[in-house]
Amino acid sequence: MILVELSKLVRRPRTWVTIALLAGLPVIVGIFVKTSGLAPAPGEGPALLSEVLNNGLLFPAAALAIVLPLFLPIAVSVIGGDTIAGEAANGTLRYLLTRPVGRSRLLAAKLVTIVAFIFLAVIVVALVALAAGVVLFGIRPLSSISATELSPFETFVRTVLAITYIGWSMLGLGAIALFASTRTDSPLAASLATLAAFVGSQVLDLIDATRSIQPYLPTHYWLKFVDFYRDPILWRDVNEGIMLQLVYVVVFLGAAWANFTTKDITS
Amino acid sequence: MSASEVVRTRGLTKEFAGGLVAVDGIDLQVRQGDLFGFLGPNGAGKTTTIRMLLGLTKPTSGSIEVLGHDVARHAHDALQGVGTLVEGPAFYPYLSGTRNLIIFDGAGAGGARRTRRTRVREVIERVGLTDVGDRPVKAYSLGMRQRLGLASALLRTPRLLVLDEPTNGLDAQGIHELRTMFVDLVRDGTTIMLSSHLLAEVELICTRAAMMSSGRIVAQDDVAEMLAPTGWVRITTPDPERALRTLQDGPFGYQQVGPEVVRVNMGDRPPELLNRAFVQADIRVRELVVERPTLEDVFLERTGHGDIR
What we know:
By secondary structure, chain A is mainly α.
């Protein structure tokens, strides 16, 4: 069943259009930065972009920083919200379940699909950005944020870690999307509910009054992937982020399972 | 449940939130080898019943056995041997017909991957879609989708086919082909449960039928029993006065329903008696018809013109 779902994912034109858009945006940004020679000042604009003019190897990380705050969560919401609700709206859910596919199995396969999409997306974005970065900005030894030098190999390792962390950071949102998707027969409603959770989390993360709950917001540790470019790597917040995502996955996957395995399928 | 029963429900009830009782304590019985018509107007509860048979919705009370398995506890085992077409076919529109069936075949348990394409090719050929199998489903007509839905139901040669309004969207030729296919399938040992609101269509092929109205079963029997002669014989004759005179002397009730048409209530007596009596009296008989009810007549009679409450 997992293979069947993955084959549906990669055969669907929408998957690739979404990923192409995700990968395209950083390239556009890169071209403008290159032609204008105007990188944002350090500490302003997307993380790490200020460094890119000096070193193309950093561009994959900068690219992820560009799509991470908005475009990647939107893509995850759309793909995740579509998983069950999309099958329901399309009428294929009843045919899968009477084939028969067990409901737990279908849910598990859908979760794997979301995870596969997330990692496919971040890897493609990173690879496209690497190619664009090398062409536009060239390769040089990297200054870490902590002002020591990182070798190209070290940079590569840290970028792999950062990509993995960013992918992992999307899992909580993916689980929320999966849960929302079992609650409705409309993929649009499920995606919008997920986006509402995402925007809500971002808003609460910005204001001082909510400081006490901020460490528990799903988006709180997302941008901490820049800590992988410190020397030595600053693990504390990253670890918190990893654990927090795990909690969200367990809670919302459990809720999705409890709901989906007992509900009447009327689509 | 005896071995020859493929579907058996007892007191099956579904009450929706808000108190609407869509299915009200029905006892359905489909036997091995039946071509079973599940009839009733739209909204009678047919689809809700079928959804419960297939484990998609849960009964409020009552039990369901399908192919010897309790659906409430072992839906997976029960559904292994069932092919379905419920409330219209549904596919992934951006994929070809063949690819859609490969996906559905692959989604089920078992079924060797090596022979998957062969299985899919066979069912596509059976429903006559070989020429368009590689086109995306979004380019299919309604009739082609319906055929592809049937092909999907036929994957893995199920023992029981549960088909909800399978002739929707098909033209006269398509409906005729479908009837032939159903009869062939039943001859090969498949049991078919066929729901329809078109009673005349079912009359032509079904061996058994249940009729539903407002959530209840109002009739369930062999179709031959349901359509047994009413005892009335309709005679058309160019000599109506003499016919009436002869009938006046006879033992049977009668009524004149047209200038040259008389209906005679023969009860259990064989209709040929009447023919002989007329011929002996030198009355010309142009037409003699043994009256049988249609399924629609049976339905209207059992429901008191569609309203049983």
